[in-house]
ABC transporter ATP-binding protein (Microbacterium koreense), 223 residues
Amino acid sequence: PPVVAVRAATKVYPSGLEALSTLDLTLDAGRTTALVGPSGCGKSTLLRMIAGLEQATSGTVTIDGEPPESVATRGELAVAFQDPSLLPWRTVRRNISLALTLAHMPFDGSRVDELIELVGLAGFGDVRPAALSGGMRQRAAIARALVTQPRLLLLDEPFGAVDELTRQDLVTELPPLWRSRGATAVLVTHSISEAVRIADRIVVLSPRPARVVADIVVDLPHP
Ligand code: ADP
Ligand code: ADP
């Protein structure tokens, strides 16, 4: 699994706002790291830079020494955001299989069906997203992120938009799916308790520009 290296990364938005300033951070291979901190402190900016969706103004972000774009092009990196962004005209199964197509991977119906089961959507492969609850859509979005077997998984508040009981279920059931495969994962969350339950390490950022103010090893047996 890949190591993510953030080196002296600075991000200044066109408005002049400096979201990150010479940030250094190394994320360990095969671990799940949670980024926490107050709203607006730069967590999503950092995650988007690791995903190759946002360029650093100066400094570098590399994944095993490569630019994130190269890793993403090979389908080895997957992202899931708070908004599941499923295509409404496609069934759950075809939303998930689209990720294989976009990563130039062969269609693998049995892998898609296996993931549908693993995320707890058995029986819902043929329905469209409008027929699903928020938590079920989030499960579908996680299945779509995992179907390519990414070596690096980037999650931005993936459980943010679901009710508390559903969140408890998702937090218990979904992380083992990437942890057991040894993927490196980064989770942005507002919730320390969620971070403790999911992550091996918690990096706390302070706002404007983001600075690492605490770096905590979580020494709990995770499922
Ligand atoms: P969160 O605090 O949950 O990360 P925000 O409401 O801060 O969410 O941001 C939501 C989206 O709006 C993000 O994709 C971010 O890039 C964008 N955004 C936030 N602030 C600004 C801004 N000042 N100008 C333009 N886009 C922004
Ligand atoms: P967080 O994820 O911790 O809530 P963000 O990374 O979304 O923080 O935002 C960090 C800061 O950068 C905030 O002040 C936000 O308003 C600003 N910001 C985020 N995205 C944009 C954008 N696209 N354009 C301008 N400012 C932005």
Notes: Residues 13, 15, 17, 19, 37, 39-45 surround adenosine-5'-diphosphate (ligand 2) (CB under 6 Å). The mean pLDDT is 92.
